[in-house]
Amino acid sequence: MTNYPEVNLYIGGAWKKTAYAQPVLNPATEQVIGRVPVATRAELDEALEAAEQGFKVWSAFSPRKRAEIMVKAATLMRERSEEIARAITLEHGKPFNQAKLEVIRGCEFFEWDAAEGQRIYGRVIPSEPGIKYTVHHQPIGMVAAFSPWNFPLSQPSRKVAGALAAGCSIILKASEETPAGAVHIARALHDAGLPPGVFNLVFGMPAVISEYLIPQKQTRLIAFTGSTVVGKHLTKLAADHMKPVLMELGGHAPVIVCDDVDPAAAAVTSAVRKARNAGQVCTSPTRFFVQEAIFETFVRVFAETARTVVVGDGFNSNTQMGPLANHRRIEAMEALVADAKQCGARVLTGGERLKQPGYFFPVTVLADVPESARVMREEPFGPLAVINPVSSIDEAIQKANALPFGLAAYAFTHSASRANQLTEGIEAGNISINTLEASVAETPFGGVKESGYGREGGTEGLFNYTVVKNISHSMTI
Ligand code: NAD
Question: Would the pTM of this model clear 0.90, i.e. be above it?
């Protein structure tokens, strides 16, 4: 298929073909577009050996030299953004323009982390005369990282950039369903002059790879983005070997719409955002709690806007939302909608798969959804919004906090005191007021409760990839 790259393993600075490969599908056509290799245990051992050597080399580089290589890699990806975006649209389905924006976002992670890696400052602790206490942040070692399929380039970029900026080496197991983004990261780092073994890319059976890599002595941190259930499993494996984890897991983002805002404007913004990446975003706005006075207007305009979202092949220039990335998401949407209907929810638009090849499912709006419906508890991870009325801000906060998740949360209000009440009261790692953007390269991103542990991005993000060493130095003996 045009412009879809050959996917191989990248170990010790060299591309490696394997005997076994599984197909990659285009979700817009359900046709095979490429193949992804399956790493053997011997190849994982090679990657471990390479990453161990790579760590020795890279951790000895000055932060400035590391930054130069990372920024060069980002510049190469910017130059190749059309080619990379084409591959992403083929394997993931998202509209081509959104794929290009994803490439830029991935580059921003590299550029920001490269700069911040030069500012991982320690401390000098005031002490008695004759002794000096200094605190140093050293790179933690080799990172085993696992990235998901929803953002084939920017998800792995976030982990790779953080690890490299802190001076770590990395073995990345990227998604087998959308492998091309990670392949392009490897190409760019290779062409930018990254020493062999610092970055290694493998694919295969996710459970086999994680269970093999986590216990190995070279592995010093496990970084995962994906579902809470898999995150808990990997955290248990890591605990058996006393390894730290960085877990970016599921969410079920609440949006509180207060009656002091223009309900139509908030509804249009919300419906458009819901369609982003076909809702397959851990921060996707999903549970809308709208004050009663503006509820009907908000629901009506949200549904009207959702109906206008053009769903289609990501290469059509008028497409605003592509297919879902795999058949599992279609099955999940169908099951959640059927259950909500049975519980008494109103389906205002959408609700059924489009009758054509490809995993197309329209933006779906459910209103007056009873608490008993599964969708009130389970993250849809698709283009599904639930909209319910609330009588007070206190009730909205209580409902927002009712789930075990706490990743992103949003609110619309022009009242400073309400904004304060909401940002103080909602349990989430990221709260956005009057915007549905939850994270950029320079801000820390991550969850509380079952949404995960640790932060990516911002100054805080790099500290996950370091260990603290305190040095006590007496001037006499
Ligand atoms: P899943 O739980 O099977 O897999 C989620 C991710 O984890 C995938 O990338 C998969 O390759 C990986 N994975 C699964 N088992 C693993 C293991 N034992 N070791 C290492 N990696 C493993 O679900 P799915 O159908 O692929 O995705 C659906 C769910 O995943 C969604 O409901 C959503 O909650 C979650 N998800 C979250 C994000 C995110 O950005 N937080 C991204 C993608 C998926």
Answer: yes
